[in-house]
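Reviewer 2 asked us to include a model.

Predict the structure of this chain.
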Amino acid sequence: MAQSQAPIPHPPLEGAQLVIGTIAVSLAVFMNVLDTSIANVSIPSISGDLGVSSDQGTWVITSFAVANAISVPLTGWLTERVGQVRLFMASIILFVISSWMCGLAPTLPFLLAARVLQGAVAGPMIPLSQTLLLASYPRAKAPMALSMWAMTTLIAPVAGPILGGWISDNISWPWIFYVNIPVGTIAAIATWVIFRNRDSVIRKAPIDGVGLSLLIIWVGSLQVMLDKGKDLDWFASTTVVVLALTAVIALAFFIVWELTAEHPVVDLSLFSKRNFTGGTVALSIGYGLYFGNLVLLPLWLQTDLGYTATNAGLVMAPVGFFAVLLSPITGKILPRTDPRYIATASFLVFALCFWMRSRYTTGVDTFSLLVPTLIQGIGMAGFFIPLVSITLSGLPGNRIPAASGLSNFVRIMCGGIGTSIFQTAWDHRTILHHARLSTQANLYNPVFDQSIRQMGAAGFSQPQAYGLFNNMVTQQAAQLGVNDLFYVSAGIFVALIALIWITKPERAGGDAGAAAAAAH
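Predicted model (structure tokens):
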């Protein structure tokens, strides 16, 4: 990623300007992060209305995530060409337009195209929001600004499923996208009023066209392969084999090119730093697990347990309670303690939550669903900030933008990949468990024979009894499949702790320290 020229220093904002500027930036970030989760509980509604399967409907989520991942590394180059305020404004306006297009979508391909555009223009928004917010506050008050920013990013994923579920149940799914129009309009106007005279230096920075092309090819091929694999029977399909080979070859060329290019679009040499590698990989895999489960849980509740979209969203809501309550506390104690302790505690909390979920049965009650979600908020409060502090620890100030962009790129990409993997894995584990359970469905099994007889006594014909039994087996198989993924997620979170402890965080000072704190 090309290094950007240092922006012209501006004095901190004061009074009403500071308040309005903070609200404007926070609204833009809220709108952006909201759209990573608002569609999760609405997938069944979107799929049904557009006449596609729920599996195809998940492309609405992954298409946004992948386009977002590809555009994030371009933030530095675009900032130099356009200016950070103009780029931030353009991102907001184009995000609003693409949201309107999503709501109008008459078919799935049209919706996916609009979501790709939406994800692409959203890429620069989060890194630039950090830059604008830090420049608005005195350095001594940077932790306060970042704590407020972090709370915004924690509230949005919680509000997304609730708002998306309520809109899907009570209005119609296009309005999950239309809600961005008033929010984005207010954010754009306020941003222009407050920040229009605080833009950065503009210069014509070269673009690594070859690296960008290779990036799009390998990320796009990988994501399409993950999305289509289960429908095409994976490597039994020529299409999947071609996509896999394309992704591997393009990735290999991408790595070689980026390590030798004069102005790489992604600065891969950062992976030579132990802190950056350990922190980025732990954060990205952990985020992939979290986001994959964030999609899986409401989908399972709706398709197999009969929950409405609104109720499925409400089950996810308690994660925000401790996340918002404890996030400012994490920011206060972080400078005085080793961030590895906080990150380790966070991963153990996540592991505990997923282990608790792996004990679910088809008769699980709402309270049992809510308790792990509530506890998970404790883990969320210690997840992002300590890990990013580790990732950027010891880096000079001029490498912070490239490091932040690369770390965000890997994290966002892992979120999209995690969604695809969880969908595929759930499908496969459900089929496996269904086959195993069905072997017990024979008249030589006294339990099965007694069940069929009881159904017959209740007035069901034999075909109806067999159909009802098959439905019970299908529900149980889906339950066991979900439990498998929860259990594996718990184990991976425990294993990731080793990555945290191969790092050696350093105390950063000056601008590097402020930037490191900001990169969440």
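The chain has 23 helices and no strands. The chain has three domains: 1-206, 208-262, 269-420+489-520. We have added this to the supplementary material.
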